[in-house]
């Protein structure tokens, strides 16, 4: 998929709105990409993992990385396309990042600039500042490894989009036709974590679209198998380092 390959500018900005439930099929870009969502939640998945981007955060996607995008809620997206290797991601992995107030304003202005702007003028200076600021964005712990094993990977992806927290490890073993011992060995080999640890993290990430939509924390906690909202909030804070309430409202 071409990303302004023919445009001789170091940074190109684009604003696009998407409806709830929209899916962008697996594709890749010739340029590095920064996604920023004013509203809604975005989930990008690659063969290696999944990344959940809440409102007012961003996502870095290196050039050449094949990724599928799912959108939850009406998403107002701003995208930057940069020359390859500008994101500083030598591991070639996607990353969810915090968006500073300065970067938010720069993005708002960038989408009004024509693709073939004057690199020596004011527009060029703004885009150069973006290249500097993008390297300062903090990485957030909003990723989840996904197995390359076909049937296990499919089960994990289905769980992430529609959690079934009351299913036991035996239920998963039966679904995949494996013994418990074989399953636990395969799961750790494929994800680097235990089934319980992975499921806890997956449930927390799956809660983000519901939090962004303003659903009650108590309802989300009970749906995800927690006995009470305090237990959910404690796990949320342990994994993401912040309260679920911080994901219910956008930053100012």
UniProtKB/TrEMBL annotation:
SUPFAM superfamilies: Homeodomain-like, RmlC-like cupins. Pfam families: AraC_binding (PF02311), HTH_18 (PF12833). Residues 168-250 form the HTH araC/xylS-type domain. Keywords: Activator, DNA-binding, Repressor, Transcription, Transcription regulation. SMART domains: HTH_ARAC (SM00342). The keyword Oxidoreductase does not apply. GO terms for molecular function: DNA-binding transcription factor activity; sequence-specific DNA binding. This is AraC family transcriptional regulator. The lineage of its organism: Bacteria, Pseudomonadati, Pseudomonadota, Alphaproteobacteria, Rhodospirillales.
